[in-house]
Amino acid sequence: MTKQVHLGAHFPGVNNTTVWSDPEAGSHIEFSSFARFAQAAERGRLDFLFLAEGLRLREQNGEIYDLDVVGRPDTFTVLAALAAVTDRIGLAGTINSTFNEPYEVARQFATLDHLSAGRAAWNVVTSWDAFTGENFRRGGFLPQEERYERARTFLQTAHELFDSWRGDEIVADKATGTFLREPRPGRFAHTDAHFDIAGQFDVPRSPQGRPVVFQAGDSDEGRDFAAAQADAIFSRHSTREAGQAFYADVKGRLARFGRRPEELLILPAATFVIGDTDAEAAELAHEVRMQQVSGQTAIRFLEQLWNRDLSDHDPDGPLPTVDPVVGGQHVAQGRASVRMHRDPLATAAEWRRLAEAKGFSIRELMVEVTARQSFVGSPETVAATIDDLVQADAADGYVLVPHLTPGGLDPFVDRVVPLLQERGVFRTDYAGTTLRDHLGLAPL
Amino acid sequence: MSDTPLLHLAVALDGAGWHPAAWREPDARPADLLTAGYWVDLVTEAQRGLLDLVTIEDALALQSTDRWGPDDRTDQVRGRLDAVQVAARVAPVTAGIGLVPTAVVTHTEPFHLSKAIATLDYVSTGRAGLRVRVAGSRAEAAHVGRRDLPDVRSVDPRDPAVAALSRELFDEATDWVEVLRRLWDSWEDDAEIRDVATGRFVDRHKLHRVDFTGRHFSVAGPSITPRPPQGQPIVAALAHHAVPYEFVGRNADLGFVTPRDAEHAAAVVTEIRAAQAAAGRQDETVHVFGDLVVFLDDDAATARARRDRLDDTAGAEYTSDARVFTGTHVQLADLLTEWAAAGLTGFRLRPATLPHDLRQVTGGLVPELQRRGLFRRAYEASTLRGLLGLPRPANRYATV
């Protein structure tokens, strides 16, 4: 059976994927940018809009990192406002389980679900670092190894709060004066190593029952967490081979948690560049890569592996002769990607071999080794590629990450979506009203 | 034109209205209280009356007749939405009117609320404020689970236990507001430079740590959200006695108070002005609005009969911390004029029922005050600070 493609739209974020230096780049803060982006996504009948979150401005070498977009608005507040200027598209927000409490987050998602008539989704993330903790009451309280345990129990507790109202408690019969069917709705009590709370939840059951749950972690623990509790995974494996391996692995875990494969969608993040022809797109893609990896950015990337100040190096020159610093305080703070360099010495050796073999400068090497666009080509090529990857179980769809704010989604919506619709693998209109409907998830 | 200063008017929105039987009125929409459309309609009506702002009540607990914990009532409205998001949902489809949701201080992160209200200011293009509320109930604390509170079960400020708890909660609120205000200033207005030549998106010298350290929390900063359009959104608080009066004088732009009569109003204003001066803010504008619950009809007998009928329905006479006014919009205009002469700069009206008493305000009271030259005939500013006569403040961290 032909699978239907699911598509999300990631509002451009605060890393070098986003090209702010382009003359067409607009505000990352003004609401008009968010409204325009969301309305483009809804015009394309996309499943949902996605907002990332970061709770401390990134630093490198002890100073605020200033080469990428800096600053963003509050997730819930923007999503609630977007509910006013859209009708159907899902509204997905990243909210941290470490620097929040379940009662407050549960009422915020239940509220968003009410105010959007059933379109809320929660991407649960688990940052734990003391650097971010410096902005919060608890500080850096959580050991790294407990972060998934807290996330798991946080989500479990939130689900108990969402489920504390069945949905039929409010009668509101003016004639008899019966507002509630019975006294004390929303009762809950939860005690574990992380939370000890009890009382009454104050937001009655929302249209979807609870928000759609996304998860984005990639570790073994993260995959188990998703297999146990998530409705969708926002993964980074957008290539065919890596996608298929991830897809098979995660879908294979579901049975252990008593779930069926269709109950968890795999949605890798995907960047794209579209041209009239494949050749034109390839040329454009190279231009975008050069905008994304300036000489200064290349040096900063190199520092993130080397873990030392390399500002005296020439980005158009060779790699440093010194080795990376292993361990200790990292030069880059507030950035999840630095934790991905598990063996800096081995990676440095590999990069040196590559640079030597191809004669790459630092900047050329960084263009080569950091993320390239997932989909590059004519609209026909991109549509065919996405369809093929979804049918080949490399994904259930993609979360599109444009490089321009706010207009970066337009080429995809205007040129690729109609071709996916012609192929019969993408909706021509929304069939339902809730995000669960769009994602093909059964009602709760 | 007279020299009389114009009055400021706010309405306090809560559920189906402030009377517990309000939801049973013929025009009430009790099944819609959790929908966006309900709130959009109410705020649009308030905007039609050119009101300065609406407040939206909130708590981290279900409504109850017992302020210390849940009750067993089934005949009153229960269930609510997060007020900040209600304001955000309303913002893109309104213009002119200020949006002031309630936020609980005692159990929340100042970092989160700072960016939420800054963002409300962005999505409303400069119409945001917040009303800070301390939460002294142990039941509410148990929902969050981060702290325990003493079991005082009284609001009498002469009770030493009440005074001590009140002092502690408002001291924390002072720190909390201080952190919000610092975070709002932690980006200078021109910090975002987008300098293509040097590759820098921001001038990092115009981003500032706030480095607040207090008894209940420490916050490093800077905010993740740039300085909001108003610079500093409006901070409001409801105050009933000396400790919160001092809090208003020291920290707020707007205090809501509950005088019994004009004489009491004058005494309260004097106390807040003294606190304001003691905090070195005598040159700043701090508004003091009188709160009143209002039952309004075209003639006084109808208003009285309606109130009696609502009380009968509820099974008890309605009482409030605020003065309850029952009568016509002309009589109310007389009362507001008298109280304004005692030093109040405006009023926050709590409609006993919605939408009836709100429509009486926008369709009756407002035209009456306009006739008397006491209320605006059009929005004279596009920001809430502008409506309240507050300048856009300088940034505390800016060096030039």
From TrEMBL, chain A:
InterPro entries according to UniProt: Diverse_substr_monoxygenases, Luciferase-like_dom, Luciferase-like_sf, NTA_MOA
Listed EC numbers: 1.14.-.-
Residues bound to FMN: 94, 148, 219
NCBIfam families cross-referenced by the UniProt entry: FMN_nitrolo
Keyword Lyase among UniProt keywords: no
Gene Ontology terms, MF aspect: monooxygenase activity; oxidoreductase activity, acting on paired donors, with incorporation or reduction of molecular oxygen
Annotated ranges, domain Luciferase-like: 20-392
Residue spans crossing the bilayer: none
One Pfam short name: Bac_luciferase
Family: Belongs to the NtaA/SnaA/DszA monooxygenase family.
Keywords: Flavoprotein, FMN, Monooxygenase, Oxidoreductase
Keyword Aminoacyl-tRNA synthetase: no
PANTHER family in UniProt: ALKANESULFONATE MONOOXYGENASE-RELATED (PTHR30011), C2H2 FINGER DOMAIN TRANSCRIPTION FACTOR (EUROFUNG)-RELATED (PTHR30011:SF16)
Organism listed in the record: Goekera deserti
Protein name (Swiss-Prot/TrEMBL): NtaA/DmoA family FMN-dependent monooxygenase
Automatic annotation (TrEMBL), chain B:
Pfam families: Bac_luciferase (PF00296)
MF terms (GO), sorted A to Z: monooxygenase activity; oxidoreductase activity, acting on paired donors, with incorporation or reduction of molecular oxygen
Origin: domain of life: Bacteria
Binding site for FMN: 58, 102
Residue intervals of the Luciferase-like domain: 67-309
Keywords: Flavoprotein, FMN, Monooxygenase, Oxidoreductase
Family to which this protein belongs: Belongs to the NtaA/SnaA/DszA monooxygenase family.
Protein name: LLM class flavin-dependent oxidoreductase
Species per Swiss-Prot/TrEMBL record: Goekera deserti
